[in-house]
Write a structure and sequence with these properties.
With 149 residues, the chain is an all-alpha fold. It is built from 8 helices and 2 strands, in the order ααααββαααα. A hairpin with a 3-residue loop joins β1 and β2. α2 crosses α8. The longest helix is centred in the C-terminal third of the chain and has 19 residues. The relative contact order is 0.13. The N terminus is likely disordered.
């Protein structure tokens, strides 16, 4: 019986920690935050190129998107475990965990939106950020190929 429970748990992990969960949801969550925060349209192309200006509206947008993706918490920063599960097949925890932890720590600030923004930009400038960009770009291409813009 324990073996069956373990197998069921093991088989359910991909559903819980889907391979591309963060990047798959990025566009829909991004759009929600774009509308919710009334972000000016001029930022769309910048965000599409992973360029995030150090401006208050951008801080709020990044905070909104990462909160919507459930990878950000105002008490502890980025959810290291969830991000690790996203990219565990690309690097081991000895490489990835210090990257995310360092970005969380070095960016910590009383202003939660600014902290989130700085930690996000910090992560984007690492291997983890590169993997995220690659996944999002693949998803974008798939959406365009399927007729979604």
């Amino acid at each position: 019986m324990k073996l069956v429970a373990f197998i069921l748990l093991f088989l359910s992990l991909p559903a819980v920690f889907g391979q591309n969960t963060i990047s798959d949801q990025f566009f829909s969550k991004s759009e929600i935050c774009f509308e919710l925060l009334h972000v000016p349209n001029r930022y769309r192309s910048e965000f599409g190129n992973f360029s995030y200006a150090d401006e208050e509206v951008v801080h709020k947008y990044i905070h909104c998107v990462t909160t919507e993706l459930d990878i950000w918490n105002d008490r502890s920063g980025f959810n290291i475990e969830k991000i690790y599960h996203q990219y565990r097949n690309r690097a081991n925890d000895e490489v990835m965990l210090p990257i995310i932890s360092n970005c969380n720590r070095s960016s910590q600030n009383n202003n939660k939106e600014l902290w989130c923004y700085r930690a996000f930009v910090c992560i984007l400038n690492t291997d983890v950020g590169q993997w995220f960009k690659e996944d999002v770009q693949r998803k974008r291409q798939a959406n365009i190929s399927n007729g979604h813009h």
